[in-house]
Structure formats: structure tokens, C-alpha cells
Amino acid sequence: MLTRRSLALAAIPLVSPARAQGSWPDKPVRMIIGYPAGGPTDFGGRLLQDPLGRLWGQPIVIENRPGASQVIASEAVARSPGDGYTIFLAASTHASNAAVYARLPYDTLADFTPIVNIYASPTVLFVGKDSPYRTVGALVEAAKRDPGMAFASSGNGSSGHFALEIFRRKAGIEVTHVAFRGGAPALQEVMSGRVPATFSTLSGAIGLVRDGGLRALAIGGPVRVEVLPGIPTLAEVGFDIPDTSPWYGFLGPKSVPRPIVDRIANDTLGLLRDVTIARRIVDAGGVILAEGPEAFDARIRREVAENAVIARDANIRVE
Fold first, then answer.
1. Under 8 Å CB-to-CB from 199, ≥6 apart: which residues?
2. Domains parsed from the chain with CATH numbers
3. Per-residue pLDDT tens over the stretch 48-95
4. Which residues pair with 101 in a beta bridge?
């Protein structure tokens, strides 16, 4: 029997392939990841590492290069040859860094080749399990009574920080942004009740939700998610804001030959049609995007422009 999910997976488009580029790959492929092992970005790399390696007949070697909100990894990719042997599993901070850093050692658009956008992790508004706030409306009313209420984020310029700045304007509240060094300490402060709320990625928090330490109030993305079926979107409760949910996709250095781009994109999109792989993404709090090169390129360009406006208006800067 075909389920709605199997029909959706069957509808994942493939890229019209160009002619094969020689014998690529005839040596190991490097996958650079700009965050530590164990996080949502690394999860996607580890999930696809072996299946892609089997398709390509070559090992894929993962290099975690954390630091500076992915800038270190981005620079390493930008300086690599565009021969298809270096791919970058990038998070969406790639599209926001240009807005929050005064200077970057690369050009966000010109120095990279969009290949395939794999999945997103919805941004979710969380409070602790013992919080008195059970709805977004109750939280907003409390923030209006108490201007300067603290909201945590995983850091200046993070997706949660962007979501907070957009949300507070929509809700008409004044808040104090408390930036932590990563999502885990921010979530711990919210679970303890020392900070009332946070916008955080679902993939990084799903285990804490299942353990009962966090309470989700609303999904920041455009649709409800399967692993939190009873949680409404912000739009459903009257606070429609642009989607800041981080995405995770493959980029290459500039000038990767189109046949190699198509090969990587098609093989990745094919794997996303695999029910086992798709289920692992969904169970981890992800939403499959399956965007080919053109759609992914358009998304990045759109988000670079939108993030610049938000960062300017909210004075989001990373020193």
C-alpha cells in the first residue's frame, strides 16, 4: 500500500543528468563539516557517508572543522580545487554569516557551487517542562508585562537569534537576548527555568523533548512536523514569521563541472527516496527538502538578501 510518505518520497525530483565527467570519482572524496561530531549537521554527513561511498566506489572521508559559525570550514572549501573531490556539508549559517560578519575570507555566492539541499531542522519555540507558559499567547502576554524577559539562543547570528528578533517584532515585545556558546547550554538553562524560553532547532532538542525536559510551544517553520504532531505552527496561533529553520546541504568550491554536480545531486536525491534513510531524518526531527542545484542556489541567494535586512534592522553582529 502506498502511504502519503511513500508518495512524497516518490515525488522527489531528480536532476537532468549531464554526460559523465571522466571516471569521477577515482579517489576518496573529502566531506568537510563546519561543526563538531554529533550535531545536526554532522548527523546528515554520517547518514549519507557510507551509502554515497558505495554508489561512488570510493571512501568518503569526513573532516569536522568547527569554529566561527562554520567560517573556518567555508574558507577551507572555498580554497579547494573545484574538481568534485571536496564537498561541503553546509548548514544555513552559510547564508547568514555574510550578514553578521563585517568581513569574510571568501565570497558567499561566487566562491561556492550549490549542489543539493538535503533536509531542514525546524526552528521551535521551547520552554522548560515546569514553565507556567503553555501557549505562545501566554508567553507573549507575560513578556509584555515584564519587558526585558530573557530568551536564550545558541549564539549571536544563529538561526534561533534571527527567529527571536523577527518574533519579538511581530509580537510587539521587548526581550533580552542571552547568547550561549552552542545549543546545548542554552537548552539546559531553559530546562532549569533560569531562562524562560528559546528558539532552537528541533534536531538538537528532540531528545530532550522526548525525555520530558522541554515543552514545545510552536513550530517556527511553515508546516507541522511529524514528530510533534500536536504542536501548532506560529502562523496557526497568530504569529506568522519568515521561516528561519536551518537547512543542511552539499556545496562545492566554485567551478565544479556540471556533470559532477549532477552526479552528486542525483545520487543524494536517490538516497532520500530510500524509506530507511528518510525515516532516520524524520525521526531525528528533520524535514526532507530534496532541492536540486537551481532551487538550492535560489534559496541561498534569497536568504543572503533577507538575512542582510534582518541583521541590519536588529543590529545582529558577530565580532
1. 123, 124, 125, 126, 151, 153, 159, 160, 161, 163, 164, 167, 220, 244
2. 4-120+246-314 (3.40.190.150), 123-237 (3.40.190.10)
3. 999 999 999 999 999 999 999 999 999 999 999 999 999 999 999 999
4. 318
